[in-house]
Structure formats: structure tokens, C-alpha cells
Amino acid sequence: MNIALVAHDKKKDDLIVLIKTYAHILKKHQLFATGTTGKRIAEATGLPVHCFRSGPLGGDQEIGAAVARGEMDMIIFFRDPLTAQPHEPDVSALMRLCDVYSIPLSTNMGGSEILIRSIEQGDFESLKLSHNDEPPA
Q1: Which residues are known catalytic residues?
Q2: Per-residue pLDDT of the chain (137 residues; tens, 9 = 90+)
Q3: How many angstroms separate the first and last alpha carbons of the chain?
Q4: Which of 24, 29, 32, 111 is deepest in the core (most CB within 10 A)?
């Protein structure tokens, strides 16, 4: 699976805790992330992470484009709901694309743990078959 990992500044440490905890599962998948988040994850875990640009510099949009092309299977995005983000429209657009293309999206630790454990159980096999270039009708 192709999994995108994104975290706002105040949530990066939480995301790293999650990735360390589930590294034994995530190492079997291709990990993608926005710039700083990806670098921090790679440094903290040793896992290979393909880094897009930083979120405010277009990284969220790059991940969104990958979603639209059917190249992402899951998004874990630890958002900071208490801090205004200058690129909030990009964040909203990414979340919208996840809804349009039925891509699992989690924005917090609890939901992310459920998604990652579901990967381990093979619960997303049918999802791979449903991806295509056209949004559902």
C-alpha cells in the first residue's frame, strides 16, 4: 500500500510515536510524506520515506494529486485543529479528495491505530481493486 503521512508542526511528535509503534507493519508498505514530516520520520525510525514538498509549499497538493491519480491508498494526517494554518484550503482540498475517491483518512491517533491494524489484518485488499482514474458516480 502507498501511505501518505502528514502532520502539522505541533503534531509531528505524535505522528512519530505512531510510526515507531507500528514500524513493524509500516515497513512493508511505501511511505510518502510532506517535506519536514517525512525527514523527521525517516530520521526517527530509519524507514524509507518519499518526501514531497512541505505542506505550505505544495506538499498537500502533491499528495492530493496522487490521490486523484489513484496512487495513494491511505492518508494519515495529524492536523492541529487549534492553530490556524495558512494553507488550510490545501488541507481541505486533500480531505475532500479522500472523500471523492474513498481513500481512508485519519486525522488523529485513535483512528490511525485502527487503520494501521486493519492493514495488518488485510482489510484493505478490496480497496486496491476499487481504485480507478474516475471518481465514483
Answers
A1: 60
A2: 999 999 999 999 999 999 999 999 999 999 999 999 999 999 999 999 999 999 888 999 999 999 999 999 999 999 988 888 877 888 899 999 999 999 999 999 999 999 999 998 888 766 554 555 555 55
A3: 24
A4: 32
Q: Is residue 105 part of a domain?
A: yes
Number of domains within the chain: 1
Q: Residue 127 falls within a domain, yes or no?
A: no
d(Cα 23, Cα 134) in Å, to the nearest integer? 32
Q: Please state, in angstroms and rounded to a whole number, the distance separating the CA atoms of residues 137 and 33.
A: 29
* Residues of the binding site for substrate: 8, 12, 34-37, 54-55, 87
The answer as to whether 136 is a domain residue is: no
